[in-house]
């Protein structure tokens, strides 16, 4: 790339002037939101008479329940006509939704009544084809296999939903296996592991009161929670300084003051420069640092070389942006913070992501913003516990889990965050796993390089998929067990912390759509009985939930009627910070032995991404769009239609870079490296840095579900190695480069 491609930040004025400023993800979210229109008013009597049929009255049921379009489980209000889904609105009393919904919340309910759902248990026959069988046959045959196999060679992969984790993990532990993982390592394992290791807790930004907010790779325009973009809009009205740092703009164009388009993988370098600026200009809280941290002098001395000029050269940005951000943070503290990356825009992206997260929160500690109004707060909330009563205690597992070697030097920062599902893929391929259960996760596509994952699953002799739809993983299974959708069943009680914490549960909102499907609790009860461990599931879901609430003071009947109960103490006292935190030293660790022992530096020190771009290559980055979560949301016909209408499968490429390569908007381009060559349409835009190309990972399904989506988009995972971060087990989904060329009109 020549010097003309060196980027300048886009300010709010520049965004407004740009025709591409809204971005495809935001347009898609607006498109779905506009379908609802003005929220109608409803009377107490939710019945209505059909025009011309005065004697026929439809039954309108309204249920307060939880969304399932992503793991945040926002509160929703579901309307059903005669037991069939009609519409949904946000729950005004749920803190995550505040009466609103994101695009997923509007579109995802369509999966419930989809004709494409799996409607009966299936078994792969001798010819390799699936045939329908009864539930009794499925449970009996799977149970027989579990009785004959060593339980320590049974693995389970799930997504990180509360109900699945409670029942799935209970089932696998009752068998005697330690091999349970959810997909946290792919999405946020690095985020929690690094923050907790350095600070001893997990903090949430106080958007409602902040005067300066810096987002590093985290876009509220692509947020999963409706309360977050609402809060940032209100913050802008208050005059809050808002900065966004990252290689691709995330969709906050109407509110962010300045986007600083760092070279992909150098966000960490930018933060080192901010920390150096705060120290050099005496803009940090000495009293807080002295009282609540260790190793600050060592940290401080290590920053001397990370000058604004060094940042400019490393990140390929104007050095004044470092000064601007550092000055705003320092002068507006403690009502200021840096918010770290996530998988939507990339907490598991690079080998330096753990250090990026760590430094984000060490800067917040420097500012004295922790547990301060307008800073970042470690909220607490109500607790639930499912032990005791009719719930039999689970057996203690002595064997260490594959990829979870607690106390060893492998994946040392995973701690109690469940190890790495990415690393666990190796246990499939090397023969350690003889039986694999999957639920709520497309293991071939969601975890690692899809080619490696497919080979790994093919190496497992016996596979059971609990699923709603056919996908690349069910196609490799020996048995497929169809579960009910989230609106057809009750769920497990769960807690929501924050400023207004509550306890909530999913409630059945529509009639069962397909009679030969079962609820998750019925599936695990049937499997447990058949495997000879039924005593660990000798309870109903209601009894399980009632036991979970036993210590909360909330009556289960009250919760089940209302769907959610609030009024709990959030544990926050402004200006308070504990004498001891859950780190090795009991203090915030600016110098960390744990990081040192994990193979990272004791104090933050610059290192770039693992993969170094060759001449002519662009870094391939990926992430989520505003209307999707992993691949499952693309199974909604509404969300799929919006993806197609707005060409969301296009590959983003910088305007100047595209001009150099002779590429125009809409051209067919080829992305290639030594692993794959795939074609996509180009989206030429100034909203991505010049040395990167972005492709969303929600598409390219091998199944034509819904109709018309087969081969829509490309799978970015085929361009990268199967790999994971040695410290946290994160998936390193940005560690790949590709060449790009025009191949057609």
Secondary structure elements and pairings:
Blueprint (H helix, E strand, L loop, with lengths): L9 E2 H6 L5 H12 L12 E4 L2 E14 L8 E7 L2 E7 L12 H5 L14 E3 L5 E3 L2 H14 L5 E5 L3 H14 L4 E3 L1 H4 L1 H11 L4 E2 L6 E5 L10 H11 L3 E5 L12 E3 L6 H14 L5 H7 E2 L1 H7 L5 H8 L4 H13 L3 E4 L13 H14 L9 E2 L43 H9 L5 E5 L3 H4 L3 H9 L3 E6 L11 E4 L11 E3 L5 E3 L15 H12 L9 H8 L7 H7 L1 E2 L22 E2 L3 H5 L20 E4 L15 H9 L5 E4 H7 L6 E5 L4 E9 L6 E3 L42 E8 L1
Parallel strand pairs: 8-9, 8-17, 11-12, 11-15, 12-13, 14-23, 17-18, 18-19, 24-28, 25-27
Antiparallel strand pairs: 1-13, 2-3, 3-4, 4-5, 6-7, 6-19, 10-16, 20-21, 21-22, 24-29, 25-28, 26-27, 26-29
Helix pairs in contact: 4-18, 5-18, 7-14, 9-12, 9-13, 9-14, 15-17
Walkthrough of the structure:
It is a single chain. This protein is an alpha/beta fold and 745 residues long. Helices cover 28% and strands 17% of the residues. The protein contains 23 helices and 29 strands. The strands form 7 sheets. Strands 7-6-19-18-17-8-9 form a 7-stranded mixed beta sheet, sandwiched between helices. Helix 5 links the parallel strand 8 and strand 9. Helix 5 runs parallel beside helix 18, helix 9 crosses helix 13 and helix 9 packs parallel to helix 14. The longest helix is centred in the N-terminal third of the chain and has 14 residues. The chain is globular and about 70 Å long. The chain starts with 9 loop residues before the first strand and ends with a strand.
């Amino acid at each position: 790339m020549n010097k003309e491609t060196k980027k300048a930040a886009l300010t709010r004025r520049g965004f407004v002037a740009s025709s591409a400023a809204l971005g495809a993800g935001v347009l898609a979210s607006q498109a779905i939101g506009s379908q609802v229109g003005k929220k109608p008013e409803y009377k107490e009597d939710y019945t209505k008479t059909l025009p011309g049929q005065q004697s026929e009255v439809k039954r309108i049921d309204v249920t307060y329940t939880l969304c399932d379009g992503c793991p945040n489980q926002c509160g929703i209000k579901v309307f059903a006509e005669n037991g069939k889904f009609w519409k949904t609105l946000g729950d005004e009393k749920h803190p995550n939704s505040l009466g609103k919904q994101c695009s997923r919340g509007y579109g995802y309910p369509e999966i419930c009544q989809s004709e494409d759902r799996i409607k009966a248990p299936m078994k792969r026959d001798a010819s390799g084809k699936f045939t329908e069988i009864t539930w009794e046959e499925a449970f009996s045959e799977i149970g027989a296999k579990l009785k004959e196999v060593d339980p320590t060679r049974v693995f389970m992969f799930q997504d990180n939903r509360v109900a699945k984790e409670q029942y799935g993990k209970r089932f696998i532990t009752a068998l005697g296996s330690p091999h349970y993982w959810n997909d946290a390592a792919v999405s946020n394992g690095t985020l929690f592991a690094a923050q907790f290791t350095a600070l001893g807790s997990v903090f949430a930004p106080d958007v409602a009161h902040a005067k300066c907010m810096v987002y590093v790779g985290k876009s509220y325009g692509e947020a999963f929670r409706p309360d977050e973009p609402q809060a940032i809009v209100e913050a802008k009205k208050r005059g809050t300084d808002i900065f966004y740092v990252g290689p691709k703009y995330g969709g906050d164009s109407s509110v962010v003051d300045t986007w600083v388009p760092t070279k992909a993988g150098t966000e960490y370098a930018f933060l080192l420069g901010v920390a150096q600026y705060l120290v050099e200009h005496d803009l940090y809280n000495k009293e807080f640092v002295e009282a609540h941290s260790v190793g600050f002098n060592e940290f401080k001395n290590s920053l001397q070389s990370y000058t604004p000029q060094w940042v400019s050269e490393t990140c390929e940005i104007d050095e004044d942006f470092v000064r601007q951000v550092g000055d705003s943070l320092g002068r507006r503290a403690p009502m200021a913070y840096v918010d770290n990356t996530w998988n939507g825009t990339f907490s598991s992206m690079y080998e330096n992501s753990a250090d990026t997260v760590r430094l984000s929160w060490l800067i917040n500690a420097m500012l004295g913003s922790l547990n301060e109004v307008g800073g970042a707060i470690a909220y607490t909330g109500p607790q639930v516990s499912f032990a005791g009563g009719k719930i039999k205690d689970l057996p203690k597992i002595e064997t260490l889990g594959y990829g979870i070697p607690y106390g060893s030097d492998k994946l040392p920062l995973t701690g109690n965050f469940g190890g790495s599902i990415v690393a666990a893929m190796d246990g499939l391929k090397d023969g350690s796993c003889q039986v694999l259960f999957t639920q709520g996760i497309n293991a071939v596509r969601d975890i690692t390089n899809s080619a490696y994952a497919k080979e790994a699953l093919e190496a497992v002799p016996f596979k059971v998929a609990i699923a709603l739809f056919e996908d690349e993983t069910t196609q490799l299974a020996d048995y497929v067990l169809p579960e009910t959708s989230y609106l057809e069943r009750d769920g497990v009680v769960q807690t929501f912390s924050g400023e207004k914490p509550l306890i909530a549960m999913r409630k059945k909102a529509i009639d069962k759509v397909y009679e030969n499907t079962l609820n998750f609790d019925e599936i695990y009860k049937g499997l447990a009985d058949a495997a000879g461990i039924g005593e660990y599931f000798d309870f109903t879901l209601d009894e399980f939930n009632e036991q979970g609430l036993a210590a909360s003071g909330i009556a289960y009947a009250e919760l089940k009627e209302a769907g959610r109960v609030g009024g709990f103490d959030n544990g926050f006292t402004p200006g308070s910070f504990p004498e001891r935190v859950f780190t090795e030293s009991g203090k915030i660790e600016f110098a960390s032995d744990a990081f040192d022992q994990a193979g990272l530096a004791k104090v933050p020190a610059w290192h770039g991404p693992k993969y170094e771009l060759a001449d002519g290559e662009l870094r391939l980055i990926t992430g989520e769009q505003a209307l999707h979560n992993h691949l499952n949301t693309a199974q909604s016909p509404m969300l799929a239609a919006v993806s197609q209408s707005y060409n969301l499968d296009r590959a983003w490429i910088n305007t100047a870079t595209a001009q150099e390569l002779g590429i125009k908007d809409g051209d067919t381009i080829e992305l290639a490296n030594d692993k794959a060559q795939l074609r996509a349409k180009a989206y030429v835009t100034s909203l991505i840095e010049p040395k990167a190309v972005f492709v969303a990972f929600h598409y390219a399904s091998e199944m034509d579900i819904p109709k018309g989506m087969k081969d829509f988009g490309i799978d970015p995972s085929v361009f990268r190695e199967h790999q994971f971060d040695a410290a946290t087990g994160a998936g390193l989904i940005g560690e790949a480069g590709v060449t790009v060329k025009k191949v057609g009109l």
